[in-house]
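Justification of resources, computational component.

The compute hours requested in this renewal are based largely on the per-chain cost of generating structure records like the one below. Each record pairs the submitted sequence with a full structure-token output. That output is archived, and it is also reused by downstream analysis tasks.
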Amino acid sequence: MTTGEKIAALRKEKGITQEQMAEMLNVSRQSVSRWEMDAAFPETEKLVRLSKILGCSIDFLLNNALEARTERTHPSVLECFRFIRECGYFFLATSLDQRPRLRPMGLIYANDQALYIATDRRKSVYDDLIRNPLVELASYNLNNRRWIRISGKAEVENDPGIQAEMIALYPMIRQEFIQKDEIFLVIFKLSIESLKID
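The structure output for this chain reads:
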């Protein structure tokens, strides 16, 4: 398990929300979310306080050895997100008017419930997803030579919290998708129907 996975698992075991943990550590909820997704790493002082709150040693949080955990038939949404982030990109396949389209993309986010992808509503991929929400997503990791393949349905996500998380994770969104008088950023929630990591 990664440090982020351990923080998330122990936090949930203790029944602490991300907001509550953020308050205890005097950080933003986004910071806690980024730690749990392994997109950022807590400072030493925060690690000390985390170990006390979570009732574990700092060594446990930092140790990369795999601990025994219950078997799952599928990877979690956060594991899928981490896999794709490590690849650095993913391909999104859409189908419109019986014609497949494949696009390289990079803006992806996850929380405990779902994967989210972002695009610009001025792009054709936005129109494709609105007209036919069925998609496939794939990514390949050159280092370990493994694939992830996900099939599902993409639906527009209007939660401002999700938007804030994505902007925090990808600061370039402000420059690319948000202008003074108009926001072109559109986030789609991906309801996963099948997934496989080979």
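The chain has a mean pLDDT of 86. Residues 93 and 102 are 4 Å apart (CA to CA).
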